[in-house]
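Meet the record:
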Amino acid sequence: MKKDFLRFGDETARFRMVLLHGWGADATDLIPLGQEIVDTLEPSFELVALQAPQARSEGGGRQWYDLFPPDWGAVPSAINDLKVRIRALETKDISLKATILLGFSQGGAMAVSVGSELSLGGIIACSSYPHPGWMMKNERPKVLLTHGTKDEVVPCEASKLLLNEFQKTKEYSNLFLFDGGHEIPRQALREITSVLGQW
């Protein structure tokens, strides 16, 4: 892939969804899911899938930072780089306030950290976790978390910790739990679409 992102949409779009893939995947991974979501929403959405900057040292796929073992020291730089990339997507027709971040797993953790520091329309974090030392800002976007109760990769307690922090402010936050593992199943997809329609 020549570019570090893939973009879909038309000139009528007034909202944007930015997809942040998980560890070991790439920018194409969440596109079918993102397309299914935005195709059901009105007014129209632009869909942007960002590619994590690093190739995994072993095996294929990409990463936002080393995760096995975790290189937590690289997280602040990764967050700053992603904030720059997201701000660069802003146009006169689609502002940051009209932008939704949707991330899965490591991409979800990035969505939480970066989204908490930007004036976005919302954050959707699936099978996510808080970065060490993460602190929520007093003003934040709306947040929807989804997590499988049988997730053996990122235990659902991680999203419960996130929800506990988010609920310290009055802005919308919710955790949708489902009977499943490290995934975004059909029932979570329906919840995401429904909540986005309300937002």
